[in-house]
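User: Second chain of the day. Same drill as before.
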Amino acid sequence: MKYVIVQGDGMADRSQEELSGLTPLAAADTPNMDALAGAGEIGLVETIPSQLPPGSSVGNISLMGLNPEEHFTGRAPLEARGQGVKIGPDDVAFRCNLVKFGENGRGRTMADYSGGHPSDPAAEAMIDELKEKVGGGKFRFYSGVSYRHLMVWKDGRNELDWKRADLTPPHDISGQAVAEYLPGGAGSNSLSKLQEQGRKVLSDYSGGPNGIWFWGAGVRPDIPTFKQRYGLEGTVISAVDLIKGIGSYAGLDPVDVEGATGFIDTNYEGKVQAALDGLSEDGLVFIHIEAPDEASHMGELETKLEAIEKVDELVVGSLLSSLSGDPDTRIMAVTDHVTGLKSGTHERGAVPFAVSEIASLNDQVSGNFSESAARKSGREISGGPELFDLFLSEGL
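Assistant: Same format as last time:
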């Protein structure tokens, strides 16, 4: 059997007044995910344990069939793995956003958590300058994609209580004054100083990022592979280092797709082709699309609707067309967490999934892939491991 997971990051949301009380997922035109819901199983899954913060790191660990309470040790080490950055046993890794600060008359604000989505070459030049003027020694910067980068504190576990470090994700404080959200906790003064040094280095750049922001601290995790757990191998396809890193730890081969951006302009066709190329017997392909999540963080309803519809048409629809009638392929559409348009950030709440055999799909079967339809199904799954057991079960 071949298995395909299509993960539309942050597709789930709350009802919107502008959509007559529907969620974006319910209002969007999604005939292909609707077909999966009609032909197979639909339900709700709790991807975020109550003791852990809602977010893509925890949510995607869960969707790869793991218990985040056992295997989540921070976001940044997962991104480091996705970038090929080695983390020592006593190192602490941090997500380092290139951000844009503003002023509101009372102090500095978080004007844009993504720094205006700088191009990769522009961002790499900024990280190189940070390496030269701020980094070195125990603080090491690594360039990633657009605004998403890393800083590794060599042997930082000896100086920082990373589990208790108070580090706020920048997308949680969009438009707010940043003074009360500076790094807190034992050993965090070094991080505050480093952020301020980074701001001074980047202050001459106009129109884009003018500072850095640390969050997502963590240490190297211990994650069992799909081969060890299920006898499966496969690939992970994403523009986002976090997802590549989780997949890599779990034994999936990350595939780089030219033109994959982590935004609505990503190369959907290239991702689908990479999935088809990597699909094999007793194999798993995990395809991740970041665009719906980014649209929510920006508070752009129309962009989120467009992103969901692109996931449906250009990814799910293309896969169903290419694999039509295949008796040995199973596909799941799912999302990792709620990302609220109104809040602009990740939220708690069960999210919908739909699982079907490719061979079960036909033009006569109709369903609805949405939060409300999943709730009405009565199927509620407590976490990723239980969902994965369903996905692989012979009796589906």
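The chain has two domains: 2-72+223-392, 80-218.

User: Great, on to the next one.
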